[in-house]
């Protein structure tokens, strides 16, 4: 387990989590903003992307009250991305997440998850900044991130290829208080 906050647990992925990821990432309402409805996942794609990839992304399952409800990942920004975003010699992390169980939408769990991850990254990883890049049209996620203390920094034009079209994204930042 990476951390727990109230009834929320974030832990490393295990083998059984493949089936949750396959379910969530084949659901058009999840794919609308995460990966794209034109790229649903099957078990082989889940295995390839979440289990067989050799990257520096920490991939985690989110549980609430003992039930798997979503996914979160975090990573330290590489030098190329830091330069692109305008950061120099800082410890900057990025994160991506979704609540996969729609019955848990609009209950404040996204806010609890993001704020808990911020706390973890700042305290345990000494992150000075945490960034996200949601699509401009993803107003629900942006509202959640703003509740957690993220600020819109600038538009990243045509930043993400999504459903065959390049989408503008917000560079959003949480800056550690000194």
TrEMBL record:
* Domain named N-acetyltransferase: residues: 8-177
- Gene3D superfamilies noted in UniProt: 3.40.630.30
**Recorded GO terms, molecular function?**
acyltransferase activity
E.C. number: 2.3.1.-
Q: What keywords are annotated for this sequence in UniProt?
A: Acyltransferase, Antibiotic resistance, Transferase
Keyword tRNA-binding applies: no
Claim: Nucleotide-binding is one of the keywords in the record? no
Could you identify this protein by its name?
A: GNAT family N-acetyltransferase
Organism (species): Bacillus changyiensis
Q: According to the entry, what is the taxonomic lineage of the organism?
A: Bacteria, Bacillati, Bacillota, Bacilli, Bacillales
